[in-house]
Structure formats: structure tokens, C-alpha cells
Amino acid sequence: GRADDQVKIRGHRIEPAEIATTLTELDGVEQAVVIARQDRPGDKRLVAYVTGTANPGDIRATLTKKLPPYMVPAAVVALETLPLTINDKLDTRALPAPHYGDTDAYRRPTTTIEAILATIYAQVLGLDRVGIDDSFFDLGG
Fold first, then answer.
1. Whose C-alpha in 53, 73, 77, 132 is 20 to 30 A from the C-alpha of 139?
2. Cα(2)–Cα(17) distance, rounded to whole angstroms?
């Protein structure tokens, strides 16, 4: 890839196209694009957008076995089609914001140590709250 396609996230230089290539090699993934999104100031995360029949959760689980942790997207979003501009280029502005983690399954900390760790994780990740069942890495850490 070209140098201008590289992104730097948490000190790692990453080529999103390399991750997209790995995605398209997976069963059920037809097209894939990976971008760095900054949905909160200072919180840049990799997000994969895929078309096909593969389950986004299964895709992330498979990527954790094939790629180093810093290259695994924080979220995988399944789309019917990738949005294109009039010139048939990817329309990154039309890509929907991902849902990072399952907020419905939030379980609050019950011990002092859990509360301290959850607070630290939330601060590091720039989140309002982190539950005791949440994975630091699944949330983008």
C-alpha cells in the first residue's frame, strides 16, 4: 500500500487495506473495507465494513486468530452494499457509525476493585462506563 494509506493507532502503523484483504479471504465475506474512525476526539479506532453472509461477531473472532491484536477492528459492520460516490469511489462519509460493544449487557461493578478497574478502563477508552463483563480489547483497547 501507499504510505498515505497508513494510519497510526496507539503507536502502531497500520495499513487498513491489508486487513481488508484478510477479510475478503474469509468465508461469507464478499467485499471489505477498513477505515480508521474517530467518533470521539482522540479516540481513533479501526472499523471494518463488509458485505456478504458472514456474521460480524464471527468475523472478529476469526481475525483475532489471524492478525495481531492492534490490527483487529474494534467493530465489524455488515452492510448490503458499500456506499459509493458518483465517481464509483468509496463514500466514507456515508458509512454508518459502528456500535462498539453490547450496552444492553452492562453489569455494574460490585466490589471496590471492580469499580476501580472499570473506571480506569472507561477513562483509557474514552467511554462513559465499562461493565464487569466487557472486554477491554473488544471495546478498542
1. 53
2. 10
